[in-house]
Amino acid sequence: MRRWDLHSGASKLDLAFESLKLADAEATHHWDDKAHHDFQEKYLEPLEPRLKKAVEAIQRLAEVLDRAQRACDDDS
């Protein structure tokens, strides 16, 4: 029996960020001034590499937990 599902959480995180980028692209049509550029620079741009690292870490953790689960199942 699986007790976690980190893969779908990582996918949801990716999809949420894609939605955020689309919303920002749409906002650019109506909000294209220094404040918007500052917002992008301060909040959005640093978020992408951090998010990618987080998703990669979640995926690695999911692999480790899957191996641990299989090892426990094999011992049963």
SSE diagram, text form:
Elements: H1 6-28, H2 34-75
Helix pairs in contact: 1-2
Highlighted features:
about 80 residues; mainly alpha; 2 helices; about 85% helix; about 0% strand; elongated
Written account of the structure:
It is a single chain. By secondary structure, the chain is an all-alpha fold. Helices cover 86% and strands 0% of the residues. It is elongated, with a radius of gyration of 18 Å. The mean pLDDT is 90.
Please give a quick description of this structure:
Helix content is 86%, strand content 0%. With 76 residues, the chain is mostly helical.
Low-confidence stretches: none
The share of residues in helices is: over 70%
So what's the overall shape? elongated
User: How many helical elements?
Assistant: 2
What separation lies between the terminal Cα atoms? 12 Å
The number of distinct β-strands equals: 0
What amount of the residues lies in strands?
under 5%
Q: Major sheet, described briefly?
A: none
Rg value: 18 Å
Mean pLDDT comes to: 90
Order of helices and strands: HH
Structural class call reads mainly alpha
